[in-house]
Amino acid sequence: MSGVPDTARTPGQPLMRIKDLAKTFSLKGGLFGGETDRVHAVDGVSFDLIKGETLGLVGESGCGKSTTGRCLLRLIEPSAGEVWFEGRDVLRMGGRELAALRRDMQIIFQDPFASLNPRMTVGAIIGEALIIHGLTPTKRAFEDRIIELLETVGLGADHVRRYPHEFSGGQRQRIGIARALAVSPKLIVCDEPVSALDVSIQAQVINLLEDLQTKFGLTYIFIAHDLSVVEHISTRVAVMYLGRIVEIATARDLYTQPLHPYTEALLSAVPIPDPTAKRQRIPLTGDVPSPIRRPTGCHFHTRCPIRKMPLCASEDPKLKPAGPNGHMVACHLRG
Amino acid sequence: MVGSTLASPTAEIARPQPVSLAYEAWRRFRRHRLAVVSSVVLLAIILAVLLGPTFWTVPINEIDFTARLKAPSAKHPLGTDDLGQDLLARMLYGGRISLAVGLAAMVVAILVGTVVGAIAGMSRGSIDAALMWVTDLFLALPQLPLLLLIIYLFRDSLKSIAGPEAGIFILIVAIIGGFRWMPAARLVRAQFFSLREKEFVEAARALGASTTRQVVRHILPNSFGPLVVAATIDVAAAIVFESTLSFLGLGFPPDIPTWGRLLFDAKDYLDIAPHWALFPGAAIFVVVLTISFIGDGLRDALDPRKVI
Lengths: 335, 308
Prior knowledge:
The complex is a heterodimer. By secondary structure, chain A is of the alpha/beta class.
């Protein structure tokens, strides 16, 4: 009922199960510094993650994609909901369990210039996890492992003693990937890993991520706002709007048969690399509503081209099955 | 790309030549010419005040009324004061105390400020608020009346524990450090606020780094630049502050000629014996300037982003 897809119909075992995840941030102000408002960044997100898949998470800026990713890793403490990883309750974990969890889940960041400590050598950056978790017993093994990781991401042993500023954006992103791989994780949250890169470098990094997935059996949550990149890499795609998942389907279904009007509008905005191609654009008017004062009912009804009042403004649509292969949509009028 | 798992055992990976970080920093520091020159000058001054009195054996308190307020000469290279005492001897002796007070008080101020600022910067909410409240309180306190109180309360007991000079030294360093840590604390706190949200710190957290590790390895090294600048300013301020204390009769006894004390004694004779104020003033000036340049050089040498 809460919108968790029926895993019996999808192949593979769920690696992770997220249920009604929510995160609100307090806005403090006023005379006595009390809470004046709340930002609802993530608002009841539920999905299953199947081992070995890549789940694309798309949506406009500020829709809660990155917050969702960080909540799963507990880099941000969620306000409510459940996160289960291989049958373990992530949100109830204490110090030691959480430390062990860090070896299973890692993150790759968007900005390769902010995500590497400028005062540490590449070797120290990649080796930090090895030290924290005591993964390499000898100095020799430590150095060999760092070089192995560098070579896995297409860099070389001669880079160990260099500093991050000596590298290009793409190379820095590779260093970030090597750092995440150091603990041999099962899940990697990729938070817009190619958004800050040139298009030609984007392809290289995407290919590297795909190679690594095959080689190490990784599961990805791939956060992005570039729909063509997501289509290429994802097994399934979830579309987020104002803190909620509005549609989730296999990449193929979502791109060929989008159900939610927001998904349709997003897809119609993807540029087609063919000047003669014609298609109908679905322009959305207005801005995304504020996550502080959210619209009633369906969050999207203020901009929806097919809304039906008063239903859409009064009742909250639940994410419900709407097609084959676990296709789900949260819309009163579709599905 | 080399397959990492299939590499044959005979194919030895070319290991990079290990270069120690300290050596690398030293190599970079040497490129900063002003800093190197400053280090040499400061070292010379330190050596002079440490070893000088063994070569220039004129007593610091030999009163000679026939040679009052004499300009520099062969007999008195830096001239004499109103009692005919040799200024070179007095400056060499007083320099030890001034330099020691300046450096020690700086270390105390920066240490206390860094610890307070780091704790406030890493904790949110009430601990941060309480620490900043204490910081503001210290900034708002009327310093001189409080100084009087502290010194009258503790001078005699410290003198009896650590001896007259060491007792006063400890007291003065503690007081100057205790009244000068607030700017450093605010600086460090502000740096921590901005740095702790940076993605590389988040990455460290995602890797399971403890709070201590995040602070020591990631946040503190990156807040080093502004801290060095604050430290160099603190040395200068401590030397001058010590002279204020001496002037008020709260510091070292009047017969101990610290540089600040010499300056204050000289101020009434500026028009007839300018050399008296000039030399201690110049000494403070040169020390502060060299420390500031050394700080610049250190900051650049320890920042790998700077290409030097």
